[in-house]
Amino acid sequence: TKDSICKDKNGNDVYLKDIWPTNNEIEDCVKSVVTREMFIQKYKDVFSGDEHWRKIKCEKSEIYNWDANSTYIQNPPYFDNLSPKNNKIDIKGAQILAMFGDSITTDHISPAGNIASSSPAGIYLKNLGIEPQDFNSYGSRRGNHNVMMRGTFANIRIKNEMVSIEGGYTKYIPSQETMSIFDAAMRYKESNVPLIIVAGKEYGTGSSRDWAAKGTLLLGIKVVIAESFERIHRANLIGMGILPLIFQNGITRKIFDGSEIISIKGEIVPSGNLECIIKRKDSSKQSIQLKCCVQTATEVKYLMDGGVLSYILLLT
């Protein structure tokens, strides 16, 4: 640095360069202190663990023994009912679960922070006898899909254009009730209604958060229609078997108000078009073309098999 850090006994300026050790001095110091025996002593029991680790009871097994009572790690249902499909899509009677504006981030979609007591995830944990002070965060409970799917679209700052309040709420169209997005998704699931997310530009921007796609799948969402996608989240959606579609010809999300019933059909090919038929409250219908935001034949295969992991399992 150009400024002195002190003065010596003779009143002369002392600079950092005057007291900074040379590389040789540093190397000599390391050699005199850091020894082979030090590493042997430190790591000789690395696979035995400390006292707390050794007290954990477990069964010897080649595969993980899932604990049904764990609130941190649960066996997710991604691979239930695996079966390959063809590359044709025929979604009928789908409902819009939520409509979002521009620049919805992966943290909006799947927050990693604190779990609110009144949220679906908080209620789930309280019903298991866990006190709010022990909720921890979504990030710490990412191994439990029951928590994470309840946290999907639960960011307190997310704005669903179907309702007037901020947070993870939506309108359940059959009854016109306002409720949490999770609760609405589960009601639709009971009636076997496929779900769609509608969004503006740059949907999924931010960190490449895997749960933003995983949670979307577990809510029963088959398709996300946006004006544009962030590239990594687009790939993650496909990796979980969710079809990303893009508006075309100047059409935007404003064509919807959230009450529409949607059908989508056609053949999934890279950058191909699919027909989307929109049925409105007054029973009028409109047909638009949506572009498949799918770039390769391999991505088509992932979608056909329900995602990349399902694709791999079906190969074996």
UniProtKB/TrEMBL annotation:
Pfam families: Aconitase_C (PF00694). The keyword Iron applies. PANTHER family: ACONITASE/IRON-RESPONSIVE ELEMENT FAMILY MEMBER. Transmembrane segments: none annotated. The keyword Iron-sulfur applies. Residues 123-249 form the Aconitase A/isopropylmalate dehydratase small subunit swivel domain. CDD domains: AcnA_IRP_Swivel (cd01580). It comes from the Eukaryota. Belongs to the aconitase/IPM isomerase family. Its cofactor is [4Fe-4S] cluster. This is Aconitate hydratase A. It comes from Nephila pilipes. InterPro entries: AcnA_IRP_Swivel, Aconitase/3IPM_dehydase_swvl, Aconitase/IRP2, Aconitase_4Fe-4S_dom, AconitaseA/IPMdHydase_ssu_swvl. Keywords: Iron, Iron-sulfur, Lyase, Metal-binding. GO terms for molecular function: iron-sulfur cluster binding; lyase activity; metal ion binding.
